[in-house]
Specification:
The chain is of the alpha+beta class and about 80 residues long. It is built from three helices and five strands. Helix 1 runs antiparallel to helix 2.
C-alpha cells in the first residue's frame, strides 16, 4: 500500500497529522495510527503494523488487528492509501 500523491505526513508531540495538499483536509493521528500509516506507506503489510503495535504498547493482539484493519479500511475508503 502507498500514500496517494499529495498526502503529507507530519509527526507532532501528540501523534501525527495527514494533510491532503489538494483540498486542505487533514486527519489527526494518535501514536498507534502513526505506526500504521508509516508501516503501510513503507510498503509493509498490515500484519507488520500489528506486530509493531503489540511490541510498542500494552495491547492484545486481537485488538491491534481489529484497530489496524479498521484504520486501513478508512484510509483506503478516503483514498489516502491505495494498493
Amino acid at each position: 500500500m502507498k500514500l496517494r500523491k499529495g498526502i503529507a505526513v507530519t509527526t507532532t508531540e501528540y501523534g501525527g497529522v495527514l494533510l491532503d495538499e489538494n483540498d486542505g483536509s487533514y486527519w489527526q493521528l494518535n501514536d498507534t495510527s502513526v505506526i500504521v500509516v508509516d508501516t503501510l506507506a513503507a510498503g509493509h503489510t498490515p500484519e507488520v503494523a500489528v506486530e509493531r503495535i503489540v511490541a510498542a504498547f500494552d495491547v492484545e493482539r486481537a485488538e491491534a488487528e481489529s484497530d489496524v484493519a479498521e484504520l486501513t479500511r478508512q484510509l483506503v475508503e478516503a483514498k489516502i492509501l491505495h494498493a
